[in-house]
Amino acid sequence: MTQYTARLTGAVPFNLQETFECGQCFRWLPGDDGSYTGVVGRNVITLRTDGDDLLVAGLDQAEAEQRLIPYLALDEDYAAIQEQFRRNTQLAQAVDYARGIRVLRQDRWEALCSFIISQNNNIKRIRGIVETLCNTWGEPLPGGRSSFPGPEVLASLTEEDLQPLRSGFRAKYILDAARKTASGEVDLDHVASLPTEEAAAELCRIRGVGIKVAHCALLYGFHRIECLPVDVWMKRVMSTMYPQGLPEELLPYAGIAQQYLFHYSRSHPELFEA
DNA sequence: CGCCAGGTATGAT
DNA sequence: ATCATACATGGC
């Protein structure tokens, strides 16, 4: 029986399933009662909806507010963002399909590393590889979960060491990212201070990080909500819905628009045929 | 079995 | 600059 120890009030709009299963994160698992359990830093956290509130297990009230309000983007004005999005007919459909999506503020390194693994891969297998990565090199946490291993831990490994991960050609990319990040050759704090375009260029110095992975890392790990990752699904969306590109007034929130569109297109593949 | 997956690096036009 | 292809592995 889960003991909920904190409550976040007024989490609207917010939906756990839509937020955790829309493809932005890979480590939140559904319970049998509508709850979700995941790892934030060194904490195993369970969340459950109670009306307009979120019940939190794994943190006390002060920690929950301090850590989860930013993590869950509860400080972002989604009412205003959605109101803007609804003025666009195409986007309105996607928003109405999953009104409870929020783009999370994840850990920078975790987002970068996870989306390196994501390239030319399917989400089911990404989840498996990330979980194995954590269980093998992260620190054990309650409930059989593990922390996401820091770059300094992975930096000392070899491709051979990573073989059990079954990450294929991405292994060398993971190691290059770990080494450059751990050494400060690519300094994520510095990246965070750069203008978006320069930040992306800096991340692209890592082997296996191209513009799409860089934009994912920036959007999900640095909360640069103007970043628009374009993968195979978004290519279909853009060509069928926005052949002229996203309307200019949406560009400041392109990353969030992308999240609704990405989720909608994956759920309605027939609408976006080649 | 064959095609595809939240792409990128590399080498050829 | 733009375009094709290889890349590891496994889901479906």
TrEMBL record:
Record InterPro entries: DNA_glycosylase, HhH-GPD_domain, HhH_base_excis_C, OGG_N, Oxidative_DNA_repair_enzyme
Similarity annotation: Belongs to the type-1 OGG1 family.
Catalytic activity: 2'-deoxyribonucleotide-(2'-deoxyribose 5'-phosphate)-2'-deoxyribonucleotide-DNA = a 3'-end 2'-deoxyribonucleotide-(2,3-dehydro-2,3-deoxyribose 5'-phosphate)-DNA + a 5'-end 5'-phospho-2'-deoxyribonucleoside-DNA + H(+)
Keywords: DNA damage, DNA repair, Glycosidase, Hydrolase, Lyase, Multifunctional enzyme
Signal peptide range in chain numbering: none
Keyword Hydrolase: yes
Superkingdom: Bacteria
Record's protein name: DNA-(apurinic or apyrimidinic site) lyase
Domain HhH-GPD residue range list: 117-266
Species of origin: Hydrogenoanaerobacterium saccharovorans
Pfam families: HhH-GPD (PF00730), OGG_N (PF07934)
